[in-house]
């Protein structure tokens, strides 16, 4: 028995050391570098800053006429509206797809599954956006982000909905409740837990998305947070302190989200991954 | 008939519109545009010329090869490493909550931020990883600057970021296994390794299948991370299909870029759908 306890203690120690070395140090490195002055930051070492330079953050804010504030506004707007749209479209769509078992729902299910596997056809999407006159607009970007997240989100809703009995709806229907009210008043409130998961997962994905805004939302006015850091990368190759101040600024919202919703995020990811 | 009334078609109409207009239609018309020379306004049909260019130009062909290497090593590494990590985390370790949170957090950090951080840490002369290697008595590695190591360096970071979700899925799978099996095996004298191989692995097959598919899909789509780290370079050593689509677009070869997109569809279709059948994904879950 004694021997096993020692074994587990060793496991704890080695596990923690490895975790700190591999997973914590990169974050410490980001934070320390963002607080140094330019010369010290460019040494790229893991030493403590000799002086703390919080003005790096102020400089990042002021850069390009407060570009980062605009970027935060755009990213929050993009993530917020896309997620709202996804909740409406996918909760209703998932309801239909899970409850009906006919040819239409069969075909749609297959198409949505395809969307889970396949990436977007990028240039043709730009072409469609241009034809609709919404290329380089927030509206177009929101619709594309929503379309690309539909497969995953619908899967989450379908998985959750299979645990809700159909008797509720049938009883409500016999009592003369209209289908829309039935869904709005009875089913949608029951979906609350999975809706919370959808909000967090889709918001994180869209907020962190770099590729799609790069293609579908070019232009200085439309910049999103992930693009600011990419622009910084080109401009500040020799000022790692500013680069990492920006990295920290765009990572902090996620850190806060993680501290508050740790369990919900982890459970949601498992549910999504296993059921999807 | 009642069913059709309760679950009215109207519920699915918004989904059909958004998904069709911004995903399915572009996907279908990409087949046509991949066979043209076009600039969004006008398109001139040119047959299979783009595809021929694709498979006869070495820099483009390398992208196909790299895409497969990313998928194979990325998903293979994640599948195995995350399993080991999850087995470790589900043993009687007291600090598992701390380790789990630390491993999970990279999943929430954007790929661009991760890419920038690791590029700095992998700096050929000043980077802290090379400092550590020198401290341990090794010789410096030019991680991202050497065509021989760049691809593998990017894959290492891909693993770092991708482990989190896979580990979480495995932990959920392993903790749902009935402990009776382990007790029975322990009574029969099976050691830890035998229990892992003969109980844990077979009983969390569905988690393993999920992780394999998710990581394969993820590695095929990888663009942000690699783009932030190497931009496809040095030369075209780390280019994959996603970066080729972007590079050809930036260079103004829209037809060629679209052809790259279609080649990516084909690679995924040829590999994923049979893989899914093989793993019997849907049925087991």
From TrEMBL, chain A:
Main localisation: membrane
Pfam families named in the record: BPD_transp_1
Protein name: Carbohydrate ABC transporter membrane protein 2 (CUT1 family)
PANTHER family to which the protein is assigned, alphabetical: ABC TRANSPORTER PERMEASE PROTEIN MG189-RELATED-RELATED, SN-GLYCEROL-3-PHOSPHATE TRANSPORT SYSTEM PERMEASE PROTEIN UGPE
Keywords: Cell membrane, Membrane, Transmembrane, Transmembrane helix, Transport
Top-rank taxon: Bacteria
Organism for this UniProt entry: Murimonas intestini
Record's bilayer topology term: Multi-pass membrane protein
One GO cellular component term noted in the UniProt record for this chain: plasma membrane
Any one Gene Ontology BP term: transmembrane transport
Family: Belongs to the binding-protein-dependent transport system permease family.
Subcellular location: Cell membrane
Every ABC transmembrane type-1 domain range: 72-261
Segments passing through the bilayer: 12-35, 76-96, 108-129, 141-161, 182-207, 240-261
UniProtKB/TrEMBL annotation, chain B:
InterPro entries per UniProt: ABC_transporter_permease, MetI-like, MetI-like_sf
Protein name in UniProt: Raffinose/stachyose/melibiose transport system permease protein
Pfam name, any one: BPD_transp_1
Domain ABC transmembrane type-1 intervals: 64-275
Biological process per Gene Ontology, one example term: transmembrane transport
UniProt subcellular location: Cell membrane
PROSITE patterns in the record: ABC_TM1
Membrane topology type: Multi-pass membrane protein
Native source species: Murimonas intestini
Entry's family note: Belongs to the binding-protein-dependent transport system permease family.
